[in-house]
Amino acid sequence: MSFVFYSNFRLFTPNLVPPKIPDGERVDFDDIHRKRMEKDLNELQALIEAHFENRKKEEEELIFLKDRIEQRRAERAEQQRIRSEREKERQARLAEERARKEEEEARKRAEEDERKKKAFSNMLHFGGYLQKTEKKSGKKQTEREKKKKILTERRKPLNIDHLNEDKLREKAKELWQTIHDLEAEKFDLQEKFKRQKYEVSLNSDINFSTALDSE
């Protein structure tokens, strides 16, 4: 096989030296071809092994990534479960606190209603006591009628069903002030009754002593 090159438009042929075959040796082209085929097969086998090795690594990495994803998903699910449980516990505490406050408020309202009823009952009893005191003290009819009228005006029905909490508080203060005033009047009447009793007793002793002296 000859090569022809053009250089400056001049045709020339390079000097090719054929491979020198040693004297007395025979070239085995079949052996050369066989070795060439073995080399190609070895290279192909190496490529195949490298390919499968890379694929194995890729599959291992893929499995690792899948495991990481599943682990992360499980961690997120666990975190969500914990948050949900904590939220349920928080809501339960809030509900329990609300129930406790409502129960406490109901108890206070019941106690307040009971105090109001007792105060009203005391007012009625005190009115009856004043009536008995007036009869025993021998006051004039006009004075008794006057006090009866005052007590009748004071003994108004305790209509509290329609009142709200603020109005109930005001009503309780009003009743407390009324009781306080009545207690003051009661004390004054008791002191007055004691003085009258003392004066009657003293006059009786004086009259009795005078009668003895006259005898």
TrEMBL record:
Residues 75-158 are annotated as: Disordered. It comes from the Eukaryota. GO terms for molecular function: actin binding; tropomyosin binding; troponin C binding; troponin I binding. Residues 75-116, 132-158 have a biased composition (Basic and acidic residues). Keywords: Acetylation, Coiled coil, Muscle protein, Phosphoprotein. One of its GO terms (biological process) is muscle filament sliding. GO terms for cellular component: cardiac myofibril; cardiac Troponin complex. InterPro entries: TNNT (IPR027707), Troponin (IPR001978), Troponin_sf (IPR038077). Residues 165-199 form a coiled coil. Troponin T is the tropomyosin-binding subunit of troponin, the thin filament regulatory complex which confers calcium-sensitivity to striated muscle actomyosin ATPase activity. Belongs to the troponin T family. PANTHER family: TROPONIN T, TROPONIN T, CARDIAC MUSCLE. This is Troponin T2, cardiac type.
